[in-house]
Design brief:
The protein is an alpha/beta fold and 287 residues long. 36% of the residues lie in helices and 21% in strands. The chain has an 8-stranded mixed beta sheet, sandwiched between helices. It has a 6-stranded mixed beta sheet with strand order 8-7-6-9-11-10, covered by helices on one side.
């Protein structure tokens, strides 16, 4: 086969709009694996979320890229790589959000640190660990995974950071007033040590430690498994997938991707409502 590894995004890619995975996608993934290919989930989701999804569709034994590359899980689900923000940068960032009036929450492992309860975090555990009922998720396993997640309200984030010095691997910023594109530039100018991207066309920002991306983690897997980048394929639907699509030997954009993302890709497949991942595997990878 020309491509030995497929890195796939989840939301808007492998997951359909109902947070389920079409049976056709699962079948195609296993057809590729039966021919010797490896399939790596590469997502902005948390380690527990990505493991839950991987386990449900039978991807045990594969590495996983979580939090947009800040965490890499090994074949057994343990953390093999982790990148965290420097605490001074976090404090400067928090002061900037407070001054500009932006809501942000912070990911410490599988705990979500929030300043207050809002619509952006109220159902985080349920969204982080979706039921996957139609995909084959088992109720007992679902509750086990959800039980390991936590939303923690931090009244004084500045003090919390100072006293606890948590290992933060990802930040998300939300806004409904169309200000995030400009705010992303302000972050770059005023706060160091941060990579800023968007997975929802600037309805939110996803922020990683400097130098961290899905593409940088693919490179690490390339070195670990001795699979050159030109023998890797990647598929995704949004701006936080852009570097990954460009880095891989074959970059595939979903049919529901923005035009700017499609323009960066080598190929475009069907949408996440049309089992676009399966279409791509069968058209480009099973050769």
């Amino acid at each position: 086969m020309a491509y030995k590894l497929l890195a796939t995004d989840l939301d808007g890619t492998l997951l359909n709009d109902y947070r389920e995975i079409d049976r056709e996608n699962i079948q195609a993934i296993h057809e590729f694996r039966e021919k010797g290919g490896r399939v790596v989930i590469c997502s902005g989701r948390s380690p527990l979320s990505t493991r839950w999804i991987a386990n449900t569709i039978g991807l045990k034994g594969e590495p996983i890229i979580a939090y947009n590359g800040a965490i890499i899980l090994d074949e057994n689900g343990g953390i093999s790589e982790q990148a965290v923000f420097e605490h001074d940068h976090l404090l400067h960032f928090w002061e900037l959000c407070e001054g500009e009036g932006f809501y942000a929450h912070f990911y410490e492992g599988d705990t979500l640190l929030v300043p207050k309860e809002t619509k952006w975090n109220k159902n985080w555990i349920e969204n982080n660990i979706p039921t996957l009922e139609k995909t084959g998720g088992k109720a007992a396993d679902l509750e086990n995974f959800r039980g390991q997640c936590q939303v923690k309200i931090v009244d004084d984030f500045y003090r919390y950071m100072k006293s606890n010095q948590p290992d933060i691997t990802k930040i998300a910023v939300f806004d409904e007033e169309g200000r995030l594109a400009d705010f992303s530039k302000v972050i770059g100018e005023k706060v160091g040590g941060m990579e800023v991207s968007s997975s929802l066309n600037f309805l939110n920002l996803e922020i990683s430690p400097s130098g961290v991306s899905k593409a940088s983690s693919l490179l690490k897997l390339s070195e670990k498994y001795d699979i050159p980048l030109y023998q890797m394929a990647a598929i995704g639907d949004n701006y936080n997938d852009s570097l990954m699509l460009k880095a891989a030997g074959l970059g595939i954009a979903m049919g529901n991707a923005p035009d700017k993302v499609k323009a960066l890709a080598d190929q475009v497949t069907g949408s996440n409502q049309e089992a676009g991942v399966a279409q791509a595997i069968r058209r480009y990878l099973l050769e």
